[in-house]
Every structure is written in structure tokens, then in C-alpha cells.
Amino acid sequence: MAEGVVFDLGYRPHEGERLGRAGARRALYRDGLRRVLGLRRKTRRKVFPFLLTGIAILPALFFVGLSVIAGEFDQAATLFDHPQYFDLTGSMALIFIALAAGELLIPDRVNGTYQVYASRPLTTVDYLVGRGAALATVVIGFLWLPHLVLFFGRAWVSSQGFGSYVSSEFEVLFTTLLGSFAYFLGYAPLAFAVASVSRRASLAAGVFLGVVTISGPVSAQLVDSGFSSMGLFALQQHPGYVKDWILGSSTHHWIPERAGYEPVFSVIVIVTLAIACWLVVLFRQRRIT
Amino acid sequence: MTAPSPTRSDIIAVSGLRFAYGDILAIDGIDLVLPPGRIGLVGANGAGKTTLLKILLGVLPAASGSVTVLGHPLEHGVLEVRSRVGWMPEGECLPPDQTAADFLGYAAELGGLPPRAARQRASDVLGLVGLHEERFRYVGEFSTGMKQRAKLAQAIVHDPELVLLDEPTAGLDPEGREEMLQLITRLEGFGINSVTSSHVLTDIERTCEWVVMLDGGKVLRSGPLSDLSTSDEAELEVVGDASAVAAALLRLGASVRHHGASMVISYAKGDAFDVARDAVVATGAAIRRLGPRRTTLEDVFLGEEDAGG
Q: What is the model's pTM?
């Protein structure tokens, strides 16, 4: 029998490459992705993100599967084109963002992990950009993935042939990506702002969902009562209105539209709200620097 | 108190540093030059220890004065310093829903290490602090002692040149305290300088070679522990009539503090040992013990506080 020898290697200093601030930013981004998706966490943390993603992608897989069996994509039968698909996934993205924003910001503050960030080569802006980019990647991916499935599924069964379909309809990939970004920008900054002032993720999610959801009916009532400027306060409606503008469709009679505002006003509201929320979050998270 | 001029090898140089929380002055114009090695920062609660550490880390901005850490002035930017410094805060800083290995790897990456090297370092450092077996357990399941060791591990996982430790033995039982003090003492052997803040003077005595005493935001004393703990006084214990020996010492011009058979002798005109010998010969008493008086950090600290009013 061979004799085993235990070597105490002691402390070995790191003599390799150091990536500095850029490496720290990438680490923040990767950690954000893992946190939003519940990876390297207990199983219950993974359930919700993957369940939502599954539900979002299931209709696309179903209709593509049906079309493969039938041999042709029947749009009239499925009633599900790209703009309508956003109406399903957009509501799910709202819930997803509500939960993910709190998960990204609140535990660091409550658990004192800020103190670790404060001892690393990072600024508050690095921290927020890393967290925001992680959420953007997951949310835009979540919104865009079903469109990719739908697009390439259609291309697969298209009578034009795969290549011809892709080359003739290629623009759809860009417009759906842009539409996905509109949903992210319309919801995520407000969710981050609420999370930055709360100590409980569930409470932050509830407040965010409540404000966004209630803003629609309240604005509608006020618009119908003659206060047309209140149409700009229908927070849940702006991303959908902008999405229809980008995709050249009209799936709803949106509240800002009823109040007489062009889609460009919704873009202005989204951008203004995003900047205001960014400033709130920056102020609240300033302790890292 | 005038600080000596900093040299290239000094790890910390502070000049005219002031900091206030609103109207409360926490750091009151201090000057410090600290050499490499194990530095102890002692003072009562509220003396300004944590504030000073946070200023050294660049978390709190100095109201006035200059701070140089590892040869890099903080006013030129704190990020360069932070990539070379580790920080173990007194409070909680560990996420309970991550395993120790995952969090340490992340902490190393945040310090600028590439992902693969970070994972390796996390494993190595958890081994060094005695958490190798527990590295895949969630931090939320750790005991207080394990959390303290994990906190120390995150402070050194990116291989810093200097680590700032704020009350590292807080909340530990005697065994855990002993292990933590041993770990801190080993840091110098790893090439890591340390500044340990504590209000427990015996912890500093055991782990540090240089001591800074803070009180009310001011530096009472700063110097090598050996200079603070030795004195020119002699400690004498006799068999026989101690009062007669004490009287003889006084007649010879020495000062005596006398408790039973023991006495502390100081002699301004010469060597305290010579005058002790003469007094013992004159009275015919027998010596049980004679040696230099070892002052504790507590003696020095209380003496300085009394002197400061």
C-alpha cells in the first residue's frame, strides 16, 4: 500500500494577473445574473425565474410544434403574432422585474455586504451598472427568447423556405429586441428605486406592482373625466404603447393614446422616469463609495 | 504629539487628520506614521478607531489633513488603495444564502482576481482559516466563530498588502478568540500587514508589535509595544521585613510603591537595580524575586488617560 503524504502548502500569494476595476465590474454582473436566476442558491430560489421563463416560452413552442405537425404556420388559427406575444410576456416581465430588482439590491444592504463592496475597487455607479446590466440581460432575454422561437419556428415551416423567410423578415428580430428593451426601461428603473428604499424584497415588489398596476385604471378614469394630461401617468401602458409603435401594430387602445398623446410622449415619460429613478437609486446606494 | 517623518516603507502616514459626524468631532487633528507589521489600534468605545479605519479605506472622507496608505495618497483616488487593502468590518457582511466557497470566490473576483484564480484562492484561504470542511455550507448556517473566520477570509482572499481588522474577536468565546488571535498573528508571515482595532488591550498585546492608543479622537501614544511595556523601574519581592527595605530605599533617594512583600522601585539618579541591592544588603532581607517591571498596555493606557485629564 502506498504511503500517503500530506503537504501543508501554507499561504501562497497571488502572483498572476489582476483585472482591477474592470474585473470587479464583470464579477458584479455575473453575480447579478446568478442572483436573478437563483443559480448557486437554494432550489426554491430557482423555481420562480425558471417557472416564469417556461410559461413565457411555452405558447411559442406549442404553436411552432403545431405548425410543424400541420406543415404550415396558420396565423389566423394561432392568433399569436409578435405584438400579441408581448402582451402575455410583458405582464410576466412586470412580475419578474418586481421580484428581481429587490433580490439584486436589498440583500446586499440588509446583510451588510456593502462593506465588502466598499473595500474593493468599485464605485456606486459600477455597482448599479453591474446590477442593472444583469437584470437587463435576463429580462430582455426573457422577453425576446419566445420571439426567437416563434421567428425561427415560422422560418422552419415556411413555404418560402427557411433562408428566404429569415432574409425577408429579418427586421422582426430587431424590432422585437427593441420592444423588449422598451419594457425593461419602462419598468426596471422604478422597481430599482422602490427596492432602494425598502428593507424587504417582498414589500418592495408589492409596492412596485401596486403602483404600476393601479396607475392604469386611475389614469383611465381621470382621462375619461377630462383630465387628459393624466394619460401620461398610466405607467403600465407606456411600454406596450411604445412596443406597438416600434412593431407598427395596434393591439390595444392605450390610455396615453386615448388622452391624445403620440407614442413619442410615452418614450419621453419612460426616459424621464428612468433618469429620476436612477438619481434616487444613486443617492440611496452612495455608501459604497 | 509630533509624528516622525514618513519613509518609503511606512504603510500608513496620516497628517493633521480631522473628521466629524455633524457637530461631534470623531478624529481631532491626528498625525501618525505606521511601519509595516502588526499594528494595534486601542481605545475605548467611541475613541475613533472604526472612523480612522474607514478613513484609511476611503469610505469616509477626511474633513482636513492628508492620508497616505501603502504609499498612495487617498486624495489621488481610493480605488488604487482598495485593490491592495482588505477590510474586516465589525458588523455583519456575509450573505446567508451563499456558500462560503461561492462568496469567497466572488469577494476575490471583486478584488480583481480572474475567476479561476479566485475560486482557487477561495478554497486555499478557507483552508487557512479552518473552514475547508465547511466551504460548501451556506454562510447562514455558520456559528459566530465560523462567521468571524469567514469575515477574515474575505478580507485576505484577494491577497492584499494590508488588512484592516475592526474588533475581530467581538462576540467570540475564549476558544474562538484564541484561534482568531493566532490567525491574526500569522498574517505577517503571509506578507500581509495588519491594523487591528480593539478595545481589549490583552488582544492587542498578544498580536501586535506596534500600538496606537486613541482617546476622544486624539492619539495618546504611538510606538513599538516593547517600548511601551518596558520601563526603568525594578520590581522587588523580599522575604522578611519589607517595610524596612522600603524605608532603606527611601533613605537612598529612590521612589517606592509598596504592596505587602512586593515593591516597585524607581531611581532617578541611577540604576534601580543597584539601589535595590544596596537596600537589601543594608537591611539583611532575602530576595525572593528581582527583575524589571513589565508594564501592561492597560497600565500605559490608564496612565496616559490620567495624564490627559
A: 0.85
